[in-house]
C-alpha cells in the first residue's frame, strides 16, 4: 500500500470553530470549502446504530431537549439510548457562557425559530451526504470513541469494529475512509479484518490524559511498547502496522517527521488552529493537518502551494489478487 504526498486538509469535526461540531451542516460547509478529508468521531447507540459524536455521552454543552433545556452533566451514555432518543436532541448551539462557547465565539448558531435544528447524525447519513455532494474525492477520517478506563460507555472493540466495518462494506465506501483511534485495539482489529483500510494511530504525550508513554505500554496501545522500539513512536506505530501517525501537533518535531517518513508513515497532526502554527508545520514536512478552522488552513496551504482543487491523501491499493508491497 502506498501513499502519494498530496497535502491533506482535514476539517476537525467538520470545522467546529465555524459550525456546530459533527453536524451534517458543518460537514456540508466543509465540503463546499474544498477540504480533502472530513474528520469525525463515531459512537454506537443501544440499538446498534453508528452515530457521529465526539463524546461517548450526550454532551451537556451541546444537547438540548424539546423544551430547550441542556442535558444535565455528565449526560447519558449513547450506548444506553436508542437512535430515536439520541436524535431527539438539538445540537445547533453551544451552551451560552460555557467554556466551550468561549473557545469558539465565532461558531454559527444553527438553531432558532423556523430553523430545523441539527441532530446527532448517523454515519450512514454522512456517507449519503458525501455521495449526494458530487465530490468523488473527499475522504472520511473516522475515529472510534472508546476509552479503556470506561468500557461500559461503548461496545467492546470487537463489536465496535464489526459494526463499523459492516456499514463501510455495505455502503461500498472502503476506498474513501481511514480509521483512527487513541485506542489501538480497534486499529489492530481493522488491520486484521480489513487490511486495505488505512489505520491512523492517534497519540498524545502531554497533559492530563496521555495515551502513550515512551517507556512502557499503556492500556491504550494494544500491548505495543515504545521501549521495545528504541523509545520511538514512529517505530512503534510502524511495528503495529499503522500507515499514518497522527500526533498532537506540539509533540512533533522535524526529526520525528523525518523518522516517520523513512519508515513509510504519513504524519497528520491535530488540532491546529493558528496560521503561524499551520505554516511552521507545513515547513517541517507534515503530510496533513486537522483543524477546527479549515478555512484558514486552506488559505495557508494555498499560500504554500500545497492546496489543490482536489488534493486529498490518496491511497493506492493493490489490484485484486496481487500482494501488497
Structure keywords:
325 residues, alpha/beta, globular, disordered C terminus, phosphoric diester hydrolase activity, Putative glycerophosphoryl diester phosphodiesterase
> So what's the overall shape?
globular
Proportion of residues in helical segments: 25-40%
Which range does the strand content fall in?
A: 5-15%
The main pleated sheet reads as: 8 strands, parallel, barrel
H and E string: EEHEEHHHEHEHEHEHEHEHE
Q: In CATH, what is the class? A: Alpha Beta
Beta-strand segment tally? 11
> How far is the first residue's CA from the last residue's CA?
6 Å
Overall pLDDT level:
92
Supply the CATH superfamily name.
Phosphatidylinositol (PI) phosphodiesterase
- Any guess at the CATH architecture? Alpha-Beta Barrel
Uncertain ranges: 1-5, 310-325
Characterization of this structure:
The chain is α/β, with parallel strands linked by helices and 325 residues long. The model is unreliable at 1-5 and 310-325 (pLDDT under 50). Helix 1 runs parallel beside helix 4 (123-133). The protein has a single domain (2-315), classed as Phosphatidylinositol (PI) phosphodiesterase (TIM Barrel, Alpha-Beta Barrel). A hairpin with a 5-residue loop joins strand 3 and strand 4 (50-52). The relative contact order is 0.16. It has an 8-stranded parallel barrel, surrounded by 6 helices. It has a two-stranded antiparallel ribbon with strand order 1-11. The protein is built from 10 helices and 11 strands. Helices cover 28% and strands 15% of the residues.
Amino acid at each position: 500500500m502506498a501513499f502519494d504526498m498530496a497535502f491533506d486538509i482535514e476539517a476537525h469535526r467538520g470545522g467546529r470553530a465555524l459550525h456546530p461540531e459533527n453536524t451534517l451542516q458543518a460537514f456540508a460547509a466543509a465540503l463546499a470549502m474544498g477540504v480533502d478529508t472530513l474528520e469525525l468521531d463515531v459512537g454506537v447507540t443501544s440499538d446498534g446504530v453508528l452515530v457521529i459524536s465526539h463524546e461517548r455521552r450526550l454532551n451537556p454543552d451541546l444537547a438540548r431537549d424539546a423544551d430547550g433545556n441542556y442535558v444535565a452533566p455528565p449526560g447519558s451514555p449513547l450506548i444506553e439510548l436508542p437512535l430515536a432518543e439520541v436524535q431527539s436532541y438539538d445540537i445547533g448551539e453551544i451552551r451560552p457562557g460555557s467554556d466551550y462557547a468561549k473557545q469558539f465565539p465565532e461558531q454559527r448558531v444553527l438553531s432558532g425559530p423556523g430553523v430545523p435544528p441539527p441532530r446527532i447524525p448517523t454515519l450512514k447519513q454522512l456517507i449519503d451526504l458525501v455521495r449526494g455532494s458530487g465530490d468523488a474525492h473527499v475522504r472520511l477520517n473516522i475515529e472510534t470513541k472508546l476509552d479503556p478506563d470506561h468500557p461500559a460507555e461503548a461496545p467492546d472493540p470487537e463489536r465496535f469494529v464489526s459494526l463499523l466495518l459492516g456499514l463501510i462494506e455495505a455502503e461500498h465506501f472502503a476506498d474513501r475512509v481511514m480509521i483512527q483511534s487513541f485506542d489501538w485495539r480497534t486499529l489492530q482489529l481493522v488491520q486484521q479484518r480489513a487490511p486495505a483500510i488505512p489505520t491512523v494511530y492517534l497519540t498524545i504525550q502531554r497533559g492530563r490524559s496521555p495515551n502513550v508513554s515512551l517507556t512502557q505500554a499503556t492500556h491504550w496501545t494494544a500491548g505495543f511498547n515504545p521501549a521495545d522500539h528504541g523509545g520511538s513512536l514512529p517505530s512503534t506505530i510502524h511495528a503495529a502496522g499503522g500507515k499514518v501517525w497522527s500526533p498532537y501537533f506540539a509533540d512533533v518535531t522535524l526529526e520525528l517527521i523525518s523518522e516517520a517518513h523513512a519508515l513509510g508513515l504519513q504524519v497528520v497532526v491535530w488540532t491546529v488552529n493558528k496560521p503561524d502554527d499551520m505554516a511552521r508545520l507545513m515547513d517541517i514536512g507534515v503530510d496533513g493537518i486537522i483543524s477546527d478552522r479549515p478555512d484558514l488552513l486552506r488559505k495557508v496551504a494555498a499560500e504554500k502551494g500545497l492546496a489543490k482543487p482536489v488534493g486529498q491523501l490518496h491511497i493506492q491499493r493493490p489490484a485484486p489478487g496481487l500482494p501488497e508491497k
